[in-house]
Amino acid sequence: MAEVTDGTVVDSRYNVRSRIGSGGMADVYLADDAHLGRQVALKVLHRRFARDHQFVERFRREASAAAGLQHPNVVSVYDRGEHDGTYYIAMENLPGRTLRELLRQEAPLSQERAINFGIQILNAAGFAHKRGVVHRDFKPHNVIVAPDDSLKVTDFGIARAGASEMTETGSIMGTAQYLSPEQAQGHPVDHRSDLYSIGIMLYEMLGGRTPFTGDSAVSIALKHVNQVPQPLSQLRPDIHPLLEAAVMRAIAKDPAHRYQSADEFIAALAQARTAIRGGAGHTEGWAAGEVPPEEEKRRRWPWLVLALFLLLGGAALAFLLTRPDQVKVPNEVGRQAPQAAADLVNKSLKPQIIRVKSQSPVGLVVSQDPRPGGKVEKASTVKLRVSSGPGLTTVPDVTGKPVDQAITDLRNHGLFANTSYQHSSSVSQGLVISTTPVALSQVPVGSRVQVLVSSGPKLIDVPDVVGKQESVATATLQDAGFKVTSVKQDSNQPKGQVLSESPAAGSSVPKDSRVTITVSRGPAKVAVPDVTGKSVSDAQSALQGAGFSVTVTGPSDGTVVSQSPAGGTKADKGSNVTIVAQKKQQQPPSNNGNNSSGGQQPK
Q1: Residue 6 is a catalytic residue
Q2: DSSP SS3 for 48
Q3: Residues 72 and 28 in one domain
Q4: What is the DSSP letter of 497?
Q5: Smallest Cα–Cα separation from 36: which of 14, 8, 55, 10?
Q6: pLDDT in tens, 29-70
Q7: From 27, 137, 155, 343, active-site residue
Q8: CATH number at residue 429
Q9: What would the pLDDT profile of 178-235 be if each residue is shown by its tens digit?
Q10: The domain containing residue 71 runs over which residues?
Q11: Among the listed residues 197, 318, 176, the one whose alpha carbon sits nearest the alpha carbon of residue 255
């Protein structure tokens, strides 16, 4: 729940409209500034942190650091204060979305758009660095993108301004995916740590993902320290080598090997942008193929040979006297092209990338010219023949196939599978839902294809509805995501009560499965035998045999003269029938031969 409710007036000035964001330290609210008649973003420290001196100091430091950074690419801070036992910062309210939201929807970005974003972020970083402020938490979540693609950096919550601020040595500050190796190790940081984080952001903009992922922040931090990121050209073969080299240099493990200022990083990105706009994805000094050999020179007439030697001798002497500085050609064979290109640039040489088909991994330098060890003039071109892999292949359509067959089909096309699983109610368990890249895409041989496999429908537990009324049981099962079928059954239980369910309560079954409930129809109605005129014992036998209990009124050795319910009517099986019995009356004896008329008198 929000710690500040809508309609709250903060510090008798800011009328809160709604919460628009939340972070680890604070919530952000849209509010109206009653004094200046404008909308602001009000950042309110979580109350549970308000008593923590360290958190309060970080919060105060954000306001102080950001308030001094008036720049088109930095969010403006207007005010700060206290409210209801906690602290707030009033900031510029920006339309648009975070770079994090944009990347979720649109990554990977085009090369020029990524460069545009990177330069704007670096402009903000460079402005802060020149004023002694190190952000230490550059990430897409802290960058607001306006509808016109202009950017502003926010959240200086863990910024360090000069050596007088709080010491964080020995503690990890920042977000794991964008953390510099020195931050991950708890070492002191400087502006080059920000450049590393911005390099990671550019990697994600161009590659569609961060270079390092893991199950926990610690595992990701360790990868920043120990692992080399996958070259961007393996994620998107169209990337320009100069742009790849710029990003890979920014995320070098050793701060000394990175750009030493934001301006230097901006210059590298601008150079890459110029090269991209120059066409064919190559800059000056970067070529797509071999330079054709020169035509053979015509023979010189013998009488010119002597003059030529004299000229060459003079030229050689002049060269020896005036030749420019020379550098030793480093060995770049076996290295990834971005690192090799960056190394040549650092040694004042000009790399030229030539893509060649090779069984070597994509992006690996397979040969170079001039050969390593020789000396050449500064600014000379060194040709790097870089593997583009063995060629392209087509992603087969494996949708709907068993995962083992899909992996085999991909392998037959020279591709490798990375499998992941997702619940599906429409695709059977173990069958492929989709692939990335999609079927029929052209990709380099040896590429990895993301294969999404169905783990079957999501299983949910069947609620216990036995003993509930039918209407209540049906609603409970439907709310849980089941379809319901009712079956009626005669029972001594009350009418409408659930007697049983199938599958049984507690079973884990797929959502939308059908649950059958057996519902009591009440006791069965049967015909009452007509026992009038029978002896009590015979009547009892007949009624009990039909499923009734019997109550006898009258002598047990009598004859039934009436019953209730009456014979032939229907009553609930198991209900009671009352019979009334009487003893049968004896008939008076007949007077045989004693006729008073017409008979003879005795003598």
Answers
A1: no
A2: helix
A3: yes
A4: B
A5: 14
A6: 999 999 988 999 888 888 777 777 776 776 676 666 666 778
A7: 137
A8: 3.30.10.20
A9: 999 998 888 888 999 999 999 999 999 999 999 998 888 888 888 898 888 888 988 8
A10: 1-93
A11: 197
